[in-house]
């Protein structure tokens, strides 16, 4: 019986050959490069202050991130993000209609508040001409 067992394991295991097509890798690299360039273009627009709405959103996001970061350490923050990313889609699927209704109402209110902020504050900020330098 032991000789049959040994004979069974003497032959090398058959491992299938894995081949990744070149065109797939090239397409992934091209789309990744396109997305990175688009992100850099957005960051440039935000840094130049041309789109004040995006600029304010980035400031608010970084401010919220700093508040969360001061309340807990990185591991706790990572755990919270992990749990939220796994529960929010399930909750959204279950209550999609109600969430969309409240989201639309909230978005209308945000637009109203932004219009007031724009009229009272942003319209009074002096802006000089923006010129791009050609190298």
Automatic annotation (TrEMBL):
Species name: Aegilops tauschii subsp. strangulata (Goatgrass)
Lineage, broadest ranks: Eukaryota, Viridiplantae, Streptophyta, Embryophyta, Tracheophyta
InterPro entries reported for this sequence: Reticulon, Reticulon-like
Pfam families tied to this protein: Reticulon
Protein name: Reticulon-like protein
Bilayer topology annotation: Multi-pass membrane protein
Subcellular location: Endoplasmic reticulum membrane
Any one Gene Ontology cellular component term annotated for this protein: endoplasmic reticulum membrane
All residue ranges annotated as the Reticulon domain in the record: 10-135
Predominant location category: endoplasmic reticulum
GO terms of biological process kind: response to bacterium
Alphabetically ordered keywords of this record: Endoplasmic reticulum, Membrane, Transmembrane, Transmembrane helix
Transmembrane intervals: 55-85
